[in-house]
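Workshop exercise sheet. Pairs work together: one partner reads the sequence aloud, the other fills in the structure field after running the prediction. Swap roles for the next sheet.
Pair: D.N. / O.F.
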Amino acid sequence: MQEPNTTKPLIEPSVADLLKAMAASPELTVGRRRHWTCSLRVIAAALGKPPELLPARWTALRQPMSRLHHTQMGVTAKTLANHKSNVQAALRWFAKEESVSLRGSPLSPEWALLRDGIADYRTRANSYSLMRFCSAKGIAPEAVDESALDACIAYRGATTALKANTAARRRIARSWNRCVAVVPGWPSQKLIEPPLARTLAGPDWEELPEGLRRDIDAYLAHLTQVRRTSGGKRLAPCKPSTIKVRKAKLVAFVRKAVSLGVPIDSLASLADLLEPELVERVFDAYWKERGEYPSIYLIELSSLLLSIARETKCLDDAAIARLDDMRAVLEEYRPVGLTEKNMAVV
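Structure field:
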């Protein structure tokens, strides 16, 4: 296994700095120091990063810690909860003793002036990581270029739980370029906006087998009516936007199946599309693309396909039970707390 890279220094105090401060502090009892040190090292190992690359800040660790699962770590749920509590307590102590900012490195006066000129909160949120990185690195606003954005994205991916892909780079670049036109005093240079990633290729709606389109249309029409669940709960008609999204997800599911080599002609009905072996094959492909943990999209897709099978009664009880088993497995990985997107806004 490749050794983690610890040569990239943080622009703020790290968990390694926290460990050193704890070791040198005369006020901490031996027991508290031992428990906090143990928990910090266990959590760092579970996150797959050395202490040198983990910011000593609760807002930076809260989200990645929330995605940890006790089973994968080989401990009980209570033990993991105790580790998280110890880490939070140690970070709170460190922030008080060392005057560590709760929101990361503070902006320099020149960057703070530009930030205050951004009226749109979303533009400010998307630009903030680049501004904070450049401020901490001593990069003046007028010196920001592609190399500065490259370094910011690399740092973001190596030391935080925020996305550092092409889409994230595009959001930051677009927000920067938008500020050029509307924020007084903003530097005039613009950043390159990477092109949008191509969507999954595959058949359009009109190219789907007639039987499958008929079944999907019937299901979507059913959503426009008042209906009841199997437990008797009354459901109001879905909004047009909800129906549009569900149709798009089903078409995307077909495209994914076709991309895996499933003949389009074999998907002649909803029963064929929701056949458990096919669903499992597509889910596996989505999961492998994501990495160690399934995406929220996949978790919610499993619930959607199960509800469709139950409402349309297109599968027998055994097949529906298999879909429910898949959903239950994926639900184990649903993160708690705020999403990464919401945390970025905060």
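Discussion prompt: Strands lie at 227-228, 234-235. What would you look at next?
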